[in-house]
Amino acid sequence: MKDDPEAYLHEAIRTLTAAVAKEDALSYDEPPDWVVPVRHALGAFLHQADRPVNAEAVYRADLARGPDNGWSLHGLSQSLSRQGRDMESTPISQRINEIWKHADISIPSSCLCAVDAKSRAK
Question: Is the pTM of this model over 0.70?
């Protein structure tokens, strides 16, 4: 599978989709047992697979669980932009700027685990 990046990507999406289901089955706890939502990685890998509609659904589900999560808002904004829905993306981008205004980093993806080489070069 190492020699076939496409197969790796599809296997990652399959595995992360299963992980989301397991994460959803965890009992509620505060703070959560799992700090970084698996949906952040799943959405990022869906972007890499050029599946922005699927990624949008993943980010919207995550935002229903944790509104104003900057990582998911970033992914949602990317999803909408990649679908040519910039008018919907603009207010989300503005909200991201407000949420991240004190951050000392800018993020290229909803999960740094899925940043591709092009994004790393920026």
Answer: yes
CA atoms within 13 A on the CB side of 106: 8
Tokens 């496409």 found at: 6
Tokens of 110: 């909803």
CA distances from 48 to 71, 72, 95, 110, 119 (A): 16, 16, 24, 12, 11
DSSP string, the chain: -TT-HHHHHHHHHHHHHHHHHHHHTSPP-SS-SSSS-HHHHHHHHHHHTT-HHHHHHHHHHHHHHSTT-HHHHHHHHHHHHHTT-HHHHHHHHHHHHHHTTT-S---SSS-GGG--HHHHH-
pLDDT of residue 35: 79
